[in-house]
Amino acid sequence: MNNNKKKETYIKAKRGKTTVFVECNFNETVGTIKKRLADIVEQEENKIALLKDSSVSEASASSPYIALNDSQILSHTGIPHEGIIYYVYLDENQKWEEVNIPKPDLSQEQEDDDEEEDDEAED
């Protein structure tokens, strides 16, 4: 068995309602992945920051996210195969925007399901 074979996978990069699937290898740096993402979203690399969910041991009162350093090797970040990272942009005031991932509105789905059941009952 060849142990030098790269472990190919993908990670999901999320921003707002957008999810980008980025192919990667776990021996690549975060900077390499950020460059690939920047090409996909057509944004300047230096105007993107990558973050991950903080674990319980790393939890911070100020943020549930931890910025990833460009020099980190992906396998050392704790992000699993097919894991999720978040990306944010540098705004016009040179400040990083907040991670903003909208929660799905399940109440609307429930109302739609209820209406379908009512329609079926009338038939």
Short structural summary:
This protein is of the alpha+beta class and 123 residues long. The protein has helices at 30-41, 106-122; strands at 8-15, 18-25, 48-53, 65-67, 84-89.
Structure, described:
- The longest helix is centred in the last third of the chain and has 17 residues, at 106-122.
- Strand 1 (8-15) and strand 2 (18-25) form a beta hairpin.
- It is globular, with a radius of gyration of 19 Å.
- The chain has helices at residues 30-41, 106-122; strands at residues 8-15, 18-25, 48-53, 65-67, 84-89.
- The mean pLDDT is 83.
- The protein is α+β, with helices and mostly antiparallel strands.
- Helices cover 24% and strands 25% of the residues.
- A 5-stranded mixed β-sheet has the order 2-1-5-3-4, with helices on one face.
- The protein has a single domain, classed as Ubiquitin-like (UB roll).
CATH homologous superfamily grouping:
Phosphatidylinositol 3-kinase Catalytic Subunit, Chain A, domain 1
Mean pLDDT, nearest integer?
83
Shape descriptor: globular
Helical proportion, percent range: 10-25%
- The total domain count is 1
* CATH domain class name: Alpha Beta
What is the beta-strand fraction? 25-35%
For the biggest β-sheet, the strand order reads: 2-1-5-3-4
Largest pleated sheet: 5 strands, mixed
